[in-house]
Each structure stands twice: as C-alpha cells, then as structure tokens.
C-alpha cells in the first residue's frame, strides 16, 4: 500500500464525534455507514465526514489519533471549525 494514512472525524446524527485513521477514508466511512465499521458507530447514523487530513505513516497517524482523542468535545469542535491543513501544528497551539 503506497497510499498515506489520513486521520478523519465523523459526526453521528446525535452530534457525537468519532476519530479514526485509514489509508482510504472514503471506503472506511462507507464501512461505518453500512454497519461494518467501528461498533461505536453502529446504528448512530446518518454519519457525516466533518474533517480529514494527511497523517503520515501508520505510527504518525496513530499518534495523531491518540492526541485528537484526548481533546475535549469543545476542542474537537474548534478543530472541525478551523479545518487546519497541518493538524500537528494546530494541536501544538490548541491541544
């Protein structure tokens, strides 16, 4: 797989924000929508992809995912509102 890893945030119908990583975000979001993705999202649709960004290799993507999952809901909402191109620098300033 030559495709780089991306971090994404999906919002459920109830407004819950779910963070994940994938090399194919469109495929992964479709898996979530069809109930074949993360158990936490099953039956929570409709789902909306609200943020995505490049995250480097698998290790870097996992580190970014961990950092985003540590953010408060308000911080995640700010992240979605700002849509930063460089998540790592945004987290340094806002996380």
From TrEMBL:
Gene3D superfamilies: GIY-YIG endonuclease
Family: Belongs to the UPF0213 family.
CDD domains cross-referenced by the UniProt entry: GIY-YIG_UPF0213 (cd10456)
Source organism per UniProt: Candidatus Pantoea deserta
Name of this chain's protein: GIY-YIG nuclease family protein
Record-linked Pfam families: GIY-YIG
PROSITE patterns named in the record: GIY_YIG
GIY-YIG domain sequence ranges: 3-78
């Amino acid at each position: 797989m030559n495709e780089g890893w991306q971090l994404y945030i999906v919002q459920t119908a109830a407004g819950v924000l779910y963070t994940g990583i994938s090399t194919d975000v469109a495929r992964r979001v479709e898996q979530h929508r069809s109930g074949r993705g993360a158990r936490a999202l099953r039956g929570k649709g409709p789902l909306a992809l609200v943020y995505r960004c490049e995250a480097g290799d698998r290790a870097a993507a996992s580190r970014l995912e961990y950092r985003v999952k540590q953010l408060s809901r308000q911080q995640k909402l700010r992240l979605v509102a700002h849509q930063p191109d460089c998540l790592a620098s945004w987290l340094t300033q806002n996380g």
